[in-house]
């Protein structure tokens, strides 16, 4: 059951949220009260903060939201063999697979970002993620022979979509493992946002783990939901503070998922071209109109070199970003249309 928020502490390691005017006095300022609930799905904690007139209404809104997240997970999970995405992964190498409109559109959107990023974003990296041990948090360094053998099972250009028949096929005639990890949570957030808007929710913040959030409007009396962006090169420091309203923010970094071997840190975000973890990149943060887009963009720009990332981001309307490359000892900060100054720690 959601509860009245007294103090909203950090909602994530990468993105910290701070709300003004919370506490018992809030209920005296008007009919809306702030509620919060948390739900485990898609390998993350989905957190929703929303304003509702009472507990019963908040319960109902939370329930339909989390049921939608569970529905998306059942549809698109690569961990569940019964999901539609898993069925496509198994069968599309032998024959065209007719799928439902939602899954078809999801794959089409993912391929669009693959094309726009020249393959830096690629939902076919599943076999590589498994080879490096990131699926089950057992990091390993696979031999090059193993990676080369997997090359036939990867590559977004091997996916063929036929809109007239709504079918998906793999032109390499091999089973592949589609991994929605770089875009799926953003898509789930967008679906929740759509449902809450249908319910006429006036203000809400939907967070998928520590990577993607969307702000519906703003808390009463505020211009937006304050969001602190962490500085990946200086623990405990804030890189920037912004107000979010009717937009999304996604962050990709290697501060949570990685393994260390012989003193070297291996990031969970892989470069599909090299089939190795990305090097010399600390964090990318992207603001975009939809959570699907900000999720995909933060992943793609983490893989691309900063100049290529800047060109891609500048081609996207209403999109702002901060790219932090280099190493913790020598970080390089590159804002792109970022709305606020950067507080670079020294």
Automatic annotation (TrEMBL):
Pfam families: ApbE (PF02424). It catalyses: L-threonyl-[protein] + FAD = FMN-L-threonyl-[protein] + AMP + H(+). Keywords: FAD, Flavoprotein, Magnesium, Metal-binding, Transferase. GO terms for molecular function: metal ion binding; transferase activity. Its cofactor is Mg(2+); Mn(2+). It comes from the Bacteria. Mg(2+) binds at residues 182, 295, 299. Its EC number is 2.7.1.180. Magnesium. Can also use manganese. SUPFAM superfamilies: ApbE-like. Belongs to the ApbE family. This is FAD:protein FMN transferase. It comes from Tunturiibacter psychrotolerans.
């Amino acid at each position: 059951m959601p509860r009245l928020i007294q103090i909203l502490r950090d909602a994530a390691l990468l993105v910290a949220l701070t709300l003004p005017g919370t506490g018992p006095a809030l209920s005296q300022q008007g009919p809306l009260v702030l509620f919060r609930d948390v739900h485990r799905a898609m390998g993350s904690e989905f957190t929703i903060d929303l304003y509702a007139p009472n507990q019963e209404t908040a319960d109902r809104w939370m329930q339909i939201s989390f049921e939608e997240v569970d529905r998306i997970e059942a549809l698109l999970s690569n961990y569940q063999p019964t999901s539609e995405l898993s069925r496509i992964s198994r069968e599309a190498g032998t024959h065209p697979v007719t799928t439902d409109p939602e899954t078809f559109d999801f794959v089409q959107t993912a391929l669009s970002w693959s094309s726009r990023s020249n393959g830096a974003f690629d939902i076919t990296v599943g076999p590589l993620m498994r080879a490096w041990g990131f699926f089950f948090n057992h990091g390993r360094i696979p031999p090059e022979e193993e990676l080369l053998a997997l090359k036939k099972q990867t590559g977004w250009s091997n996916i063929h979509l036929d809109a007239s028949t709504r079918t998906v096929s793999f032109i390499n005639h091999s089973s592949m493992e589609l991994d929605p990890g770089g875009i799926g949570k953003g898509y789930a957030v967008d679906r929740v946002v759509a449902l809450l808007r249908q319910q006429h929710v006036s203000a809400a913040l939907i967070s998928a783990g520590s990577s993607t959030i969307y702000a519906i409007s703003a808390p009463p009396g505020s211009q937006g939901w304050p969001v602190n962006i962490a500085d990946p090169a200086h623990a405990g420091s804030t890189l920037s503070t912004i107000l979010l309203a009717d937009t999304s923010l996604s962050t990709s970094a290697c501060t949570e998922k990685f393994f260390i071997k012989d003193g070297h840190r291996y990031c969970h975000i892989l470069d599909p071209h090299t089939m190795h973890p990305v090097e010399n990149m600390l964090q990318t943060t992207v603001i975009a109109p939809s959570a699907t887009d900000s999720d995909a963009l933060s992943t793609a720009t983490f893989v691309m070199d900063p100049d290529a990332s800047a060109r891609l981001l500048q081609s996207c309307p209403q999109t702002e970003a901060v790219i932090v490359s280099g190493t913790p000892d020598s970080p390089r900060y590159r804002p792109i249309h970022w709305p606020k100054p950067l507080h670079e720690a020294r």
